[in-house]
Fold these 3 entries.
Entry 1:
Amino acid sequence: MVFEGAGSRVNRGRVADQILEDLRGQILSGALSPGEKLPAERELAVYYGVSGPTIRESIRVLTAIGLVDTRSGSGSVVTAQVEKLIAISIASIVQFEHMGPGDVFGILSVLNAYAAELAAVHASPSEISSFREAAERAAVIETAEQIAADLKRYFLTLAEISHNPLLAAICRFITEVQMGLALDLSGGDVAGWRQITGGLHDKRMSIVDALESQDPARAGEEVRRYHELVIDRVKRLRRAQEKGSDASLVRTLSSWLGAHVTLGNTPRKAG
């Protein structure tokens, strides 16, 4: 995309917003592709017929929502971080609607069940093999951080082999939230994680077996049963019980999201 001369001048009302939407549209359409460097601020100012500060405000928002990366002295480069866009959007809805962990993780159960149904149809033998390997790695609980990372890898692999990019992206973020919150509620110790996931290896392997049998209905049902057990076990954790009320758990989730998902940063990884 080339910006030259006195191009697309904008109306005077909410100028920065109009420039933001124009640049955003070009990034999402592919006219400005990932890795491409935006023109210098002065070039964009001439192109849109506005001042430098107006351009900086638009670029600042594009940077905050993960569409460009701006570094001092290096200019702005298109990054289009899908993960960041999804993280900010979902976190905002959860916090604004005062949703609790049960609501969010119930949605993850539905999404992962759908991912399993798709994977049973579309995953290749080698992809299912990688999913089995992820399940086997999660069989042993040595540290809280290790099992959180292994379980996350297991479910992220399931999401990836669904071959649905939107589904996979949403599952990745909510899985990150689930693992992060579980680490907090478990106290970060092995005993807490054994309380959550102990004895569930066979059920994870049953999901693998369902995919290998190319049985979508069975795969989806196995995932739903697994999540029901995990959600119930998380609720029974001592720290979850100490919260004492749904309102307290809502605040806990909101606080976790506030600490880990910000406009200036991508979600910090759990585990």
Note: The chain has a mean pLDDT of 88.
Entry 2:
Amino acid sequence: MSTSVETSLDLQQHAPAGSAPAGVARLDATSARIKRFTALLVMLIPFFGFVAALYQMWAGRFTSTDLIVFAAMYAVHMIGITVGFHRYLAHKTFRTSSWFEGLLLIAGSMGVQGPIMFWVTTHRRHHLYSDSPGDPHSPNLYGGTLKDKLRGLWYAHMPWMLAPETSGWNFFAPDILRNRRLFFFHRTYFIWVALGIALPALIGYLIDGTAQAVLNGVLFGGLSRIFLANQASWCVGSISHMIGSRPYETGDHSANNWFVAVLTFGEGLQNNHHAFPAYYRHGVKWWEPDLSGWLLGGLAKLGVVWGLRIPDRAAIRNVKQTARQR
């Protein structure tokens, strides 16, 4: 999608009442087709790779190396998305050096959830319109019957990516547009996607030195990792906005789902996150499963990151009191 189309979308903020939500615009027919095609590729190619990996396992054509590479790449994928794209770019919950910033954004790009500008604008839009018209992936806008809830849950999980609309760059992410270093990682997105497939293949070859190791590197550390990690990530916008506990009053349906939180290194603690979106941790309590928050705490002690944003106790007490009164 061209920059000229995207940068013009900020005009939507001046749209009259009753039109599209501010910052959201409907794509022209050609751009909508390109978006649908790209989204389908992101959904289907990793799925077929996952099926092929299952066949390799069924046929006994895999080794412990393949499983270790899968686990390592899954961790890189999740840290890139949760720490890099989400907590660093979208919410600015900490600061870091340019070299570590680069590592985070490369790792996030290897997650194949879209280039930086798409990811950040979509996420900030989600927070602005959470579970109300304008939210790109709310499961709660289709009615109250079981059928309606299941329809919303499915839509929020994957089909939302096919919608013929987009989020304005100037409206939701002018800070990234102005930053040439950050925008470099947006423009080179497909290089990092390719690296995320090639790297596990190379590791497999260096360890086992066979063509099967290369293939399995692509299937396990590449495509299967993308499929499973992104299915887990998409549960944050679907399951964690419908099923789970709600200790804080946030004005939406965000919920803490521990199962999703474990799979996504803390992202499933959505109620906590929507209550305190600038907090570098999603686990408000130390024992809530937030691997990314624990990692950032450790990196801060090592001096790799700094300026961790933490809500004061008064702010936490105020949100808790609001929840109790409700």
Note: Residues 3-9+34-325 form one domain.
Entry 3:
Amino acid sequence: MGDNRGVHALRRAFGAVEDAAGSPWAERLASAGLTARGVVYCVAAILAVQLPTGKASPANKDGALVTVAHQPLGRILLVVLALGFAAYAAWRFLEAAVGRRGKDGVKSAAVRLADVARGAVYLVLLASAVAVLVDDNDSAREEEPEWTARVLAHGGGRALVIGIGLGLVGVGVYLAVRGARQKFRKSLDTGSMSARARCWLPRLGTLGYVSRGVVAALIGWFLAKAALDFDPAESVGVDGALRRLAAQPYGPWLLALVAAGLLAFGLFSFVEARYRRVLENA
């Protein structure tokens, strides 16, 4: 009897989650989260352009949050962004809980895991935003080589770091291919767009996704190389990868192109906030 009650309670809970995923609130969560994502990528693009001068904050999401906090009314905007990150995470976890329409088996499991990972990333961003609000001194944050050295010092740490690095390279390739093939179009309500928007907005998405892929692959490569050479100083974050890119022949031009791509992805996030189909599970 108790087992039946437990099963019924689980079914009711799952039904409530499905209802939430198919409600207008899911659309509002997605829109708020995608807008917050757009702001962060636009700020990161501006910081990336300023990297060669050495005057900018790190061109990553934490650096973008610190930069936002230092602007007039920046702390108020940071609170708004934190709420957006929470909304994005909640939306992704909802999608992970109920799954995507038309996907089953291994493909469904992979998509659910990806949604959980995306939600977790934005929970970390939420924590970062709160940390900046409490204390915007980012000098206390642990540098990439430090944590890489700690992992490499443990048994099996080298293989783990190589695996993470290669995984990031794989993510970068996936993002670039997704952008080049414009697979994101399936999630957009193109019927609500004007003819001009249907022509230009997907190109914006392509540039944005390919640029994200390039940055992720660069970070993964430097991380894997650090493990292979057993040199934690080789590992870098987003800003480190972009600085090394800028140091190459034609580096400033390449950096400008990547920065333009990050800006494109930020702007495309605003497009998704307006046109993304969210109620795929309804």
Note: The two ends are 32 Å apart (CA to CA).
